[in-house]
Amino acid sequence: MPVRTALDALTLRPAGFLRSSWPWRSALYLAGSLLLALPSIGVTVLMMLTGSKVPVFAAAIPAALAAGVCGPLIARFERWRLWLVDTQRLDPPPRRGLRGHLREQVTWWEICYALFSAAVLCWMDVVVVFCMTWFPVTFLLTAVLEPAYGTAETLLTMAAGAALLAAAPYPITAWAGARAAMTRVILGPHDSERLVEVTRSRARLVDAHEVERRRIERDLHDGAQQRLAALNLQLGLARHDLPEGSTLEAPLRKAHDLAKEALQELRELIQGIHPKVLTDRGLAAAVADVAGRSPVPVDVGIDLPGRLPEPIELAAYYVVVEALNNVAKHSAAERAAVTTTVAGDRIILRVKDDGVGGADPAGGTGLIGLADRVAAVEGTMALFSPVGGPTVLQVEFEGAPVRAR
Amino acid sequence: MLRVVVAEDALLTREGIVGLITRFGHEVVAAVGDADELIAAVGLHRPDIVVTDVRMPPSFSDEGLQAAIRLRRSDPGLPVLVVSQYVQQTYASELLDSAEPGSAGIGYLLKDRIGDVAEFVDALERVGDGHTVVDPEVVRQLLRRRRGPLTRLTPRELEVLALMAEGRSNTAIARSMRVTEAGVAKHIGSLLTKLDVWPDEDDHRRVRAVLAFLNGSG
Question: Is the ipTM of this complex over 0.85?
Fold first, then answer.
């Protein structure tokens, strides 16, 4: 088994373990706690020397408080010194400024851990290292330190010292390993944070995607579309000026028709890439336009007190487009309806049809892609589609502030 | 001959529209590239009609449309033809709503229509004449949302209704459907009764009534 941490090292054969660097690294790791313990040790010693009547634990309180304030710094130190007993790095989560720190749950974990570390753990570290070196060493030095002992006693004590010294790496390494594992659990990324990070990065991805789509839309509108429009006009003029009965009439008409079809296709393409009316007029207007193009008659009941935040507006729009596409393609419905309900700070969007039902999200990638898009703005999507209908696609956006524009 | 102000930000299209209008014997007194210049040009030249794109600088959203609405508010007698790259009912409705009954002609056309040169110029002249012209695509979309009384119309009556909504006169409808004018009048009478819209002799008001009905029923 590969040895990654001090705890893993304990499983090595004794000879291998004792020859390895792990015991030394563990001892060094624990000795590092002296740095943390020094302030509280210093205060304690000072009080004992001045003969203060204040109990020892009370002296540790100011030191511990300071440790709380320095929580993130201590945590940084704790993470850094992990390299001694853990081959896997533990990087601090990215945070910016005081506000960034206060918003992250991990900051509070850091402060708690710093308090615990400065008040309890560092003492234990020091005690462990101290006991595991002091006793073997003094035992071994019995001959010098206790000249009054008899030969047998001295030899026995020295033998005990040698045995203790040989065994000492085990408790030291075990404690260091346990301490490091604890540090990793408390200061490492928690599941909920990982999720928040994933959501954020997904939202960033969607944003970047949207910016790109907008750029493509602009480029197509300014470039190809203008040239095709000019071509369409020129062909129209040429046809108009053509003398009656010219042999060019048929090929010109064909060319003109092709140009018109190309314009039409390009227009639909651009519309699909980025809906201009959505940015200009908001969800209700954009949905009314989509509904107008749907082959299945659609009732639109969107009543919002203002504009939605842009990412939510876009997500909602794409849900409607895809849902109405599905209605047209698969549902055999005679009518569909798009409605919104505002409940507190939640927006519920419903697309309903009176078709055959039995829609299966696994059937196509459209619905799954939509669910991803909705999830990126922290919304949820539900599909009710019993065989025989009706089908209701419901999307809910949580905490959506509605702002008037 | 109409004196026209053209506003369109894309140079190619602008030159195309100017060439087309001139080719059919009208005069382009100014061709500009954004909404502010449009308003200034109208103030300066007092044209017979304005042709403007919807999407223009600086923000490329709907400056042209807003400028058109503003121009109409300050001068209800100024005919305006808005051309749009997209069919957007919202834009069409806003434009038509801005026109008071009895005011000058107004039109909303898809930009593709400039390719059908004669028809485009015909639409321009009709708007200049005080008529309302609505792109067939807008009408098609409005009709697609049909429900209520619209479901009671026969296919033939729906066809007539669509042409009415586009702003065609009875004569034009009769020509396009290859029926007699009397036949068209009969269809119109019956469909307006079914829709509960009162017939009106004035073309202009008739279009408004039909569009208002379609818009409201959707």
Answer: no
Name the amino acid, one letter, at B97.
D
Residue in A218, A232, A290 to test binding to B, most B beta-carbons within 10 Å: A232
Q: Looking up tokens 């029923």, which residue turns up? A: B217
In this complex, which of A236, A289, A299 lies closest to B115 when CB atoms are compared? A236
Q: What's the Cα-to-Cα distance from A117 to each of A84, A389, B217, rounded to whole Å?
A: 18, 62, 72
Could you give the CA distance from residue B14 to residue B3 in angstroms, rounded to a whole number? Answer: 16
Range of the domain at B29: 3-134
> Is the minimum CB–CB distance between A237 and chain B shorter than 8 Å?
yes
Contact state of B145 with A267 under an 8 Å Cβ cutoff: no
User: Looking at beta carbons, which residues of chain B come within 8 Å of A218?
Assistant: 60
User: What's the pLDDT score for residue B37?
Assistant: 94
pTM: 0.61
Q: Are residues A206 and A289 in the same domain?
A: no
Closest listed residue to residue A308, CA positions, set A319, A298, A299:
A319
User: CB A294 to CB B144 under 8 A?
Assistant: yes
CA atoms within 13 A on the CB side of A141: 8
Asked if B87 contacts B110 with a C-beta cutoff of 8 angstroms, the reply is yes
pLDDT one-digit tens code per residue, B53-79 = 998 887 788 889 999 999 998 998 999
Query: Within this chain, do residues B105 and B196 fall inside the same structural domain, yes or no?
Result: no
Same domain as A324, residue A255: no
Instruction: Compute the nearest-CA separation of B182 from chain A (Å).
Output: 32
Same domain, B9 and B86: yes
Number of other CB atoms surrounding residue A163 within 10 Å: 12
Q: Which residues of B touch A234 (CB under 8 A)?
A: 16
Most A CBs within 10 Å: which of B6, B18, B112, B140, as the mutation test of the A interface? B112
**Cβ of residue A214 closer than 8 Å to a chain B Cβ:** no
Instruction: Give me the pLDDT at residue B218, please.
Output: 37
Question: What total number of domains does chain B contain?
Answer: 2
Indicate whether A305 and A343 sit together in one domain: yes
Q: Cβ–Cβ of B16/A259 closer than 8 Å?
A: no
Q: Are residues B12 and B71 in the same domain?
A: yes
Of A230, A235, A264, the CB nearest to B13: A230
Task: Tell me, yes or no, whether B128 and B51 share the same domain.
Answer: yes
The CATH number covering residue A328 comes to 3.30.565.10
Say whether both A228 and A328 belong to one domain. no
- Picking from A141, A159, A189, the residue at the C-terminal end of a domain is A189
Q: Same domain, yes or no, for A268 and A283?
A: no
Sequence length of chain A is 405
Among candidates B85, B87, B145 on the partner chain, residue whose Cβ is nearest the Cβ of A225: B85
Residue A246 C-alpha, separation from nearest chain B C-alpha, in angstroms: 19
| Residue A351 and residue A393 in contact, taking contact as beta carbons nearer than 8 Å | yes
| Residue-number span of the structural domain to which A269 is assigned | 199-273
Most confident of A45-54, B60-69, B184-193: B60-69
A403 within some domain: no
The kind and range of the H/E element at B106 are strand B106-110
Same domain, B125 and B143: no
* Residue A405 belongs to some domain of the structure: no
